[in-house]
Amino acid sequence: MKPLSIVARALLFSGASLLMCLCCAWLLFGRSVSPLQTDLLAMLPPTERNAVAEEAVGRLARASGDRMLLLVANADDNAAKDAARELGKALGRDPVFASVIAELPPFDLSQLVTPFLPHRFHLLTASDRALLATPGFDATAVLTRRLNEPFGANAGPSLGDDPFGWLQHWLDRQPWNSGALVPEDDLLTAHRDDGSDVLVIATLAGSSYDDAVQRRALGALEAAERAAVAAHPGTRVLRTGAVFYAAAARAGAERDTHLVGLVSTLGIAALLLFAFRSMRPLLVAFVSTALGVVGAIITTIVVFGQLHLLTLVFGAALLGEAVDYSIQYLCARAHAGTGWQPERGVRQVRPALLLALATSLLGYALLALVPFPALRQMAVFAIAGMAVACASVFWLLPAMLRRPARAPLAEPLVRLALGWQRIASGRRAVLAIAVLAVAALPGWWRLGHDDDVHQLISPPPSLDAQAATIRDVAGFGGGSQFWLVEGTDAEEVLQREEALTARLDRAHIAWTGMTAMLPSRKRQAENVALVCGHGPAHADDANCRDRLRSALGAAGLKPAIAQAYADAYPGTPFTLDDWQATPAYTPFRYLWMDHASIVLPQGNDDVATLRDLANGLPGVSLIDKPAGISALFGHYRAYASLWLGGALLLVGLAFAWRYGARAAWRVLLPPAAGIVFSVAALGYLGEPLTLFHVMALMLVLGVGANYAVFLREGEPHAADRPGAAYAGVLLSAVTALLSFGLLALSTMPALQHFGLTLLLGIGFTALLAPVSASGRTTA
Questions:
Q1: Does the keyword Chaperone apply (predicted)?
Q2: Which residues contact 435 (CB under 8 A, 6 or more apart)?
Q3: Per mean pLDDT, which range of 14-18, 328-332, 479-483, 611-615 is the poorest?
Q4: Where are the domains of the chain?
Q5: What is the DSSP string of 607-655?
């Protein structure tokens, strides 16, 4: 079968490229839901071996995921309230919000009391339990003191329904009363020394991580806030919610993408114009690279269903590596002069490009094997992008570069390359590498490690400070640690949680959990017996009613009221069904799971203390998601040296197959030495080693091996112009440094670590590449 002509191949590839571009445009902009993902947590791996624990982490994330919590503050109470009302009305007019709560609807406070009256004898606080259990407890004396106390505005149970105040005490301990906010002028208001704070809650009509929803919601909030501040000077709006963290991550990623993409594009363009002195090579190089990026975006979205902004920033840096393939083809054209033939050029560079592609893909494939969504997505993006960019050299570029080059590579670049090649080749270079390896040892010894999850997730400090203030004022939880309580049924879960919360109360640690709202059946039975004044085994309802009626009458309560209260004894237990049917508990339903519950600490983030409080309690464990991810980072980092060693072995075998065993070590030496020197440099710089540094070393191996291959394969074809082949290698290296190196300036710590390691590794490897051409033998 006759092979396709250059033009036929180019037409086929162009048609496929057009389809890719249309598909990419549809995936990014043609659907109602954007595939761009700004949720950094979505890029993290599951860390809990217990599936229930992982589900609990998800429940907590979803509990406030699509809400804005806004605290409108002003030194003047009326100004704060008016500003909150106006802010709420302005947000409520925008359809991006499903609901906005500023002014409370007409609300009968008895709705917080009436549902509990049938269960009042079953619901006691810890302090009332202790009082009732005190030997010689005198109910008449307690009631007499209560009747003689001055009563304020009673928003709780009436005296007849709760003469001892036990139900009132219970209601005071419910979660909705845990913060400083109180209903005032139909607003949830808190008063502090510096003024008043009013809470406004806005629920989004879509996901916090949807790019379009983010932009509309934040735009509406900014406009409403400006109007409120203009009308009421001195007003401040504190904010928290997933949408703000997602928007901050998006803004940082966009800044990084623009910085890396723009600077690397301009730098690469200037470099190619200098090297080739023509616009055509520049156009060809960017067409090839752009097609690689388009193919990468399509593949990533198809495989993962989304494209994370972290991957997009990494993709902007991929420009510097994907352009290597077209640069080598352009260099072959420049070396050929007037004897240039596109097909011969393809045959000339094909072995080097395929071997270089294989070593690069090996490094990325190792990333893809790590069960870490962030790294896997970046790896798939790179694998697809590199493959498409390389294919474009074989199928598209020959048709675009049919004429000979106008001029050879720029003479200053060739002279510079030749000068360094003479220094960095031969036995002297090998000896110098050995000396430098010895000098690198102290850097290795100084090397520490850091597995903190915040190297990936590092939210703006201002957002964290605002969230902390809102937690203090509103009484909401929000730490990253919680206790998970598990059992075979609901009763066992509640009893186990009561054992935990008893410890928390003794340690004076505030908490939010189920048993503050729903005691176990066992605890409720004990409460009923304590009210009676007997143990559960000796309680008799008729006798207890008589005791209650007698105590109430002796304190001076009207007989009818005393009789009604006594007749209500013992009432009915408060069940899980009752709890789920109570509207006031709707915001807290995320605390209950099937045969499990969540207990949140309030105001204490000392992990060691929180873990100690759960020690020895059956079914109780402290869940610390950040610590779990950090431990996972450490686990992967510890084994990464084995993966890196295995990759070196595989690349060495590939080189031995291509160049022979005696010559393979020379080709492998530059990337291997680049890894050694990069790690030592990190030690000398005081940069602790992270998982992302180690993963970048995988890419140093893949990318660095390309340079040794390019030089060894290209030197025979540029023998008439010494230094020209290495000039092409330096050209590729500088383009990579212009892109990958700029990641060191990223706002994301993980990408900073990637960028710094690649900057060092690629730099060292490119400088050491001449060693690979020394003493060349024909395989």
A1: no
A2: none
A3: 479-483
A4: 6-27+247-456+629-773, 66-104+186-240, 111-151+461-624
A5: HHHHHHHHTT-TTEEEEEHHHHHHHHHHHHHHHHHHHHHHHHHHHHHHH
CA torsion through residues 460, 462, 464, 466, sign: negative
pLDDT digit string, tens, across residues 335-362: 888 888 989 989 999 988 898 888 878 7
Give whole-number Cα distances, 369 to 365, 376, 642, 702, in Å.
6, 7, 14, 16
Write down the CATH number for the domain with range 66-104+186-240. Answer: 3.30.70.600
The CA distance from 732 to 353, in Å, is 13
Amino acid found at 650? L
In angstroms, the CA 753 to CA 633 distance is 14
The secondary element (H helix, E strand) that includes residue 225 is helix 211-231
**pTM (two decimals):** 0.73
> In this predicted model, what pLDDT tens digit does every residue of 446-484 receive, in sequence order?
988 887 776 666 677 888 888 878 877 776 645 578 899
Looking at residue 779, its pLDDT comes to 35
Pairing mode, if any, of strands 97-101 and 195-204?
antiparallel
Q: Which residues of 316-343 are buried (b: 16+ CB within 10 A; e: fewer)?
A: bbbbbbbbbbbbbbbbbbbbbeeebebe
Distance from C-alpha of 347 to C-alpha of 328, rounded to nearest angstrom: 12
For the chain, how far is it from start to end, CA to CA, in angstroms?
31
SS3 723: coil
Q: What is the pLDDT of residue 356?
A: 84
How big is the chain, counted in residues? 779
pLDDT of residue 370: 72
* Assigned token pair, 629: 């991810």
Residue 375: which of 700, 698, 733, 48 has the closest Cα?
698
> What is 6-27+247-456+629-773's CATH number, 1.20.1640.10, 3.40.50.300, 3.40.47.10, 2.30.30.140?
1.20.1640.10
Among all chains, which residue has been given the structure tokens 């071997």?
Answer: 355
